[in-house]
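INFO batch 0412 | record 1 of 1 | parsing
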Amino acid sequence: MEKETQQEEKKQKALKDLCKKYLCNSLAISVFLSFTLNFIIECLGRKSIGAALSYMVESPLIFLYNFFIIFLTMSIALLVKRRVFVYALVSTIWLALGITNGVMLGYRVTPFTAVDITLLQGGMNIIRKYMSVTQIILLVIGFVVAAVLFTLLFIYGPKTKKEIKFVRNFITILVLCVCFFGLSKYCLAKGMISTKFGNIAFAYLDYGVPYCFTITMIDTGIDEPENYSEEEVLKLKTELDKTTTSQKAKKANIIFIQLESLFDPTLVKGLELSKDPIPNLRKLYKNYSSGYLNVPSVGAGTANTEFEAISGMSIRQFGAGEYPYKTILRKKTCESTAYDLKNLGYTTHAIHNNTASFYGRNEVFPNLGFDTFTPVEFMCTGERTQNGWVKDKVLTEYIMDCLRSSKKQDYIYAISVQGHGSYPTVRSEETPNITVSGENFTEEQLAGIEYYVNQINEMDQFVGELIKNLTAYGEDTVLVMYGDHLPSLGFTEEDMKNNSLYQTEYVIWDNIGLKKKNQTLYSYQIAAEVMNRLGIHEGNIAKLHQKMRNTIDYLERLRMLSYDILYGENYLYNGVTFAATDMQMGIKHPKIYNVFANGSGIYVTGENLTEKTKVYVNGEKVPVEYSGRRMLRLDIEEIKTGDIVTLKLTGGRKTVLFVSDEFVVNVDDATIDEES
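INFO prediction complete | emitting tokens
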């Protein structure tokens, strides 16, 4: 019996030693955590444990490659004594990435990328359209609790008692990095992974979330072409310069409207609509130049379609998941349709019924050559959707203001917002104008589709009203309208009659008799096509599209010009870049006529007052109640002679868009008649 007891004790000791050896071993812990995190992240990204298991079985090398990425970040623990803290911190970061990606895929088709982190400042302006107040509060509480826990863990958490063999551990990490580099080269050579994503949503599924997210962090800009040199650039420029704008060119007003998430829902197989949601656009498609427009994104990415349409550059020549609006265009000017038309005397305007700072447009548009920018802060917005987006019909007034503000021809680029998600998953209790049905879709999908269809029906009404105004105005005008991407409503390529999630439609209306021409275009070609129809040949990028669109090396030439303009030596312009415009915010500005008090309160009267107008009395911001574009009620007890009142419009907390002239109050005991 004693002998058996001793043997049992030996077995238990051996088991304890084994557990101690592996459970307390840093590499073993790193392997376990990395494998587990990788699997969880893929479950979240694929919205299914089964799909993650299939991915792991069918693409084991790709799964292990992504495991290796996480494992490398865990290996940092070898260099510190607070290893538990490092494991917890690194694991939380990776888990947060996976959760964020899963949540974002619930709202849009495009996965979470590193660029989305840079969009946080602008994204905070619309977070309430995606999350309830309760969810936002819980999120903030979660961040605070996490910060407290990590602080306590760092201070009081366990530390390894063994002396750290820093040199040996550093060499171990170095060897792991070399192995990872070699594995990366092998996987790239075999085509198992790629550094360029034609479809970023599919790339995340094919190559794994950790790898794709990492690539979006380190792969930015346009790669230098192999044959890039001053000689090659100037040779191409000489060929392009053979075509110039003639005196016979039709210099009409040119208006572009990028319609948020607009496409023709009758292209969806099996979807039944009670009536046509876009009758005005359908009539335009039939009678004017139109066709499919190939766009670079689906479900999100408005700014990238916008960038292509304005600059003529292809976003797919940039880094994976990149938004030039958040990278290079923050610090450098860029050849664009706006600059091209300014050379011909056009006045250039941008309009957007959303905030000025979203995607950093207030900083980017001067670098794209716009003279004015009218964002929502300068608008009397009127109706909004149930998600809080400003309805597109407001754009008509501000487009007409731009046309009236200049005696020259105008180039106007307007970005709409009404069709934006997120889309509801429960149908409205009120009977909608248009109802939808379809056996291929869940009730939740149909709720979102029905909401969307009714929004684009109102957008279609806006299009009809705008054309009436342009026709009555009488100036020669070309109006280009298109959707920036398909909505994030869960459609697949198999659902589409045109078998593509990357095609919307465009139409070119005019009142100058342009011949109808139907063709499929890319969004980076559409501006050059419109100018070509008018006989306008300005700018290197535009002329490249006009002259060389059907040549074999067309895209390589486009890449060379784009690289030279944004990242190269600027040989096209002898090293001299475009001058950023001194862009004016808004066409019409808030103005104070009077400040008075009566029995019901203290008021500011004026013109062009908006819901976003802020009032400052003697430099201090005061609460206001919006009473229309001519009056604001101040929530203060008194106003005195000599008080100084100013109006401000701001984009976020720190960006000042406009400050009015000072108004010095002159009243007797701060009380005068309203009529005065």
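INFO post-check: Residues 18-24, 669-676 have pLDDT under 50 and may be disordered.
INFO record closed
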